[in-house]
Amino acid sequence: MTNYKKPTLDKDLDKLGYMEDAAGNLSRRLVAPGVALLFIVLSAVIAGATGIGQPGLFVTVAAAAIGAYMALNIGANDVANNVGPAVGSRAMTMTTALVIAAIFESAGALVAGGDVVSTISKGIVDPASVANPGIFTAAMMAALMSSALWINLATWIGAPVSTTHSIVGGVMGAGIAAAGFASVQWGTVGSIAASWVISPLFGGIVAAAFLAFIKNFIVYQDDKLAAARRWVPVLIAVMAGSFTAYLAMKGLSKVIKIGLGEACGLGFVVGLGSWIVARPLVARQSRGLENRNQSLRKLFALPLICSAALLSFAHGANDVANAVGPLAAIVHTAELGDVVDQVSIPLWVMAVGALGISFGLVLFGPRLIDMVGAQITKLNPMRAFCVALSAAITVIIASALGLPVSSTHIAVGAVFGVGFYREWYTENSARRMAYMERKHDTKVKKVRPLKNREEQTRRKLVRRAHFMTIVAAWVVTVPVAAVLSAVLYFLLAPFLAG
């Protein structure tokens, strides 16, 4: 029988197969950057087409490209805080989260994103100090570019950071480079710095408080389902009322002017109506379920999905301004040759921000979603529900007290708060021990002693490495963005401020 096996030919064919696999993997990795680059180019083309015949066309086109890049980075980094807990708790899949977040981010940006923004972001720089149109344009472009670059780097290292703080740092650095330290309103900068501590601390405390309530009044009750039928409708009502007030204050304030009292009153009415509706629904859903924790998780899954959608809507309504605010200011200044305190945002500019956030989320968001939802600490629907609820309630409390907060820091701080509370509760709760003893679970009485510090660290419920990385990124966001913006200003000023 003839042997047709050719060792040399087989080796060559294997090498070709490996090369094809490598080429396929490389091409798949290049799809997301390619689509992102195409979006940036299309944004610049649209800006050029709408600005034909207008002065400052080159500046408008360049600013549109930078604004699109900024919007992509906001979507890649910041949106993870809204849907990450829901994905990490397996209340919904990554694909479902991406679709829901993209739809509601775009809707929030387009419906309630606002038609008027301040050209000097957050009042960081005195407008009189950069009244020259060329200097102002260079400063805004430097601020926008530096913020986008820093957020891109933070996404690459896996750290969710505040896009608002990034743009604030960028504006501050460009303002100092353009007009000196006296141009910066340091009182505003100080209040923003205070939010580094206030936001995550508030978010963590509120989330831990709700988790403590759920554990003590539902999880460690003998009849879990009876406790759930009593308290889950109350928690749903609190969530509905909180998100109504949150959206009224943060999302719809650009459309209808609503004060804190009116928002809270509207939230109370919606919360009461939600409680009336939720009671029979929860009772019907709990029928036939077993008296165990897995059944409780099913009762929290739908409210958690709703909270992710609402958070995405509010985020799109607010943070789209971080991308399109400076862009709109540059476009307005280029067209009119003058600097004013407020500008109207053209529809194409708002569309660049809304679509850019959605594209950034879909193309690059899964990594940060996984970080927030699964890698910091383990989440289930009940814990993730506490994180989402904390984001809405903390913003309302902070607004009532006049405290500046970051939604990014609140959400991540809430995840940390849930994890640290679980560590404490597991080790110290007398109620948990009594419940486990009633269930005759002897495992809690015979815990294997830990042999060394490394093993103790591995068994912590919050991963310390991620904690330190994220906190470090938060601390350096404003100064890094400021320094980078100042450098970029000095590079751009000779071409734009002359």
TrEMBL record:
One of its GO terms (cellular component) is membrane. Belongs to the inorganic phosphate transporter (PiT) (TC 2.A.20) family. It is a multi-pass membrane protein. GO terms for molecular function: phosphate transmembrane transporter activity. It is found in: Membrane. It comes from Roseibium suaedae. The keyword Transmembrane helix applies. PANTHER family: PHOSPHATE TRANSPORTER. The chain crosses the membrane at residues 30-50, 56-76, 97-114, 134-155, 167-187, 193-219, 231-249, 255-278, 299-317, 345-364, 384-403, 409-425, 467-492. The lineage of its organism: Bacteria, Pseudomonadati, Pseudomonadota, Alphaproteobacteria, Hyphomicrobiales. This is Phosphate transporter. GO terms for biological process: phosphate ion transmembrane transport. Keywords: Membrane, Phosphate transport, Transmembrane, Transmembrane helix, Transport. It comes from the Bacteria.
